[in-house]
Design brief:
GO terms for molecular function: fatty acyl-CoA hydrolase activity. The chain is of the alpha+beta class and 140 residues long. Helix content is 18%, strand content 39%. It has a single domain, classed as Thiol Ester Dehydrase, Chain A.
């Protein structure tokens, strides 16, 4: 199955990771929980690359919703090509989208998911306005 990411989403990260033997389950394919780990790792890699290092005494991102759809199995020793996109910057939130495909089969999506990210004032434990730099990064 081939899935196209709509144009209103902005590609912000493309990276590759090897599937580790321990990522698989008893059925011999990557366990579904690992796809969420792959998406989390991509979000963290992107956030640190743009200088977003959450400070528990300041502000930063919090995931409030995450999902993943599974289309094809990944297994050891696959190499996963991960693409992360941003969209829909709001007052306090933005969306992340991630596709995962085998590096040796570009364009064939094995899984696709995403997350709603809210910007939080950690000491106050409440939503805060997205910083302008982040709003600009998430805008198409």
């Amino acid at each position: 199955m081939k899935i196209e990411i709509p144009e209103q989403k902005k590609l912000v990260l493309e990276t590759r990771w090897p599937v580790r033997w321990g990522d698989m389950d008893a059925m011999g394919h990557v366990n579904n929980a690992m796809y969420f780990r792959y998406m989390e790792t991509a979000r963290i890699e992107w956030m640190t690359s743009v200088g977003c290092n959450p400070d528990p005494q300041g502000e930063g991102p919090v995931i409030v919703n995450a999902f993943c759809n599974f289309y094809r199995q990944l297994a050891y020793p696959d190499e996963v090509l991960i693409k992360m996109y941003l969209s829909d910057p709001g007052r306090t939130t933005f969306e992340t989208w991630t596709t995962m495909e085998r590096a040796n089969e570009p364009g064939v999506i094995c899984a696709a998911g995403g997350a709603t990210v809210i910007w939080v004032d950690f000491p106050k434990q409440k939503a805060a306005a997205l910083p302008q730099w982040l709003r600009e990064l998430a805008s198409v």
